[in-house]
């Protein structure tokens, strides 16, 4: 990411974000990530407008938009490019955002043992959850 301002959250904030992760409240998590990546309101609006190119108001649409941010970071051109990719295959965008190591392993053609796959999936899950919670929620 271009603007990595990760810091330790207070226990109350960290607990609240963890609840959102567990509940898979992708809409609120998306707003949280937009606030963290784009502290300037004009930039946040621009990013939101670009993300709106992936239409839909359902849970999965918010999940895909969150995945777009994970892959593109705070780069407006990459957000626009990733939105175009999501319009073709949103599932693929979510897969690369949430399970990158698993995707890389699958693309390598190497056969993984069940324990190797389990370990990769757990690492991917931890990395994704860390990314989700690395910025403070702006009230």
Topology:
Layout: H1 11-23, H2 26-37, H3 41-51, H4 59-72, H5 76-98, H6 100-108, H7 114-132
Which structural traits does this protein have?
139 residues; mainly alpha; 0% strand
Structure description:
The chain has one domain. The two termini are 23 Å apart. The longest helix is centred in the middle third of the chain and has 23 residues. It is mainly α and 139 residues long. It is globular, with a radius of gyration of 15 Å. It has seven helices and no strands.
Summarize this structure briefly.
Helix content is 73%, strand content 0%. The protein is an all-alpha fold. The radius of gyration is 15 Å and the shape is globular.
Strand count? 0
Number of helices: 7
Largest sheet, if any?
none
Poorly predicted spans: 1-17
Radius of gyration, in angstroms, nearest whole number: 15 Å
Mean pLDDT: 80
Helicity level, as a percent range?
over 70%
Strand content: under 5%
Overall structural class, as computed from helix and strand content, comes to mainly alpha
**Elements, N to C (H/E):** HHHHHHH
N→C terminal distance: 23 Å
Q: What count of domains describes the coordinates?
A: 1
Give the overall silhouette: globular
């Amino acid at each position: 990411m271009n603007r990595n301002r990760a810091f330790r959250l207070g226990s109350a904030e960290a607990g609240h974000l963890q609840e959102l992760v567990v509940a898979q409240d992708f809409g609120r998590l998306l707003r949280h990530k937009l606030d963290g990546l784009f502290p300037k309101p004009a930039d946040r609006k621009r990013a939101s407008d670009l993300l709106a190119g992936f239409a839909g108001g359902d849970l999965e649409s918010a999940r895909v938009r969150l995945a777009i941010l994970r892959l593109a970071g705070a780069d407006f051109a990459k957000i626009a490019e990733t939105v175009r990719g999501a319009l073709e295959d949103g599932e693929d965008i979510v897969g690369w955002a949430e399970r990158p190591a698993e995707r890389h392993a699958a693309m390598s053609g190497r056969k993984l043992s069940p324990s190797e796959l389990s370990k990769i999936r757990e690492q991917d899950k931890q990395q994704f959850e860390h990314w989700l919670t690395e910025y403070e929620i702006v009230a």
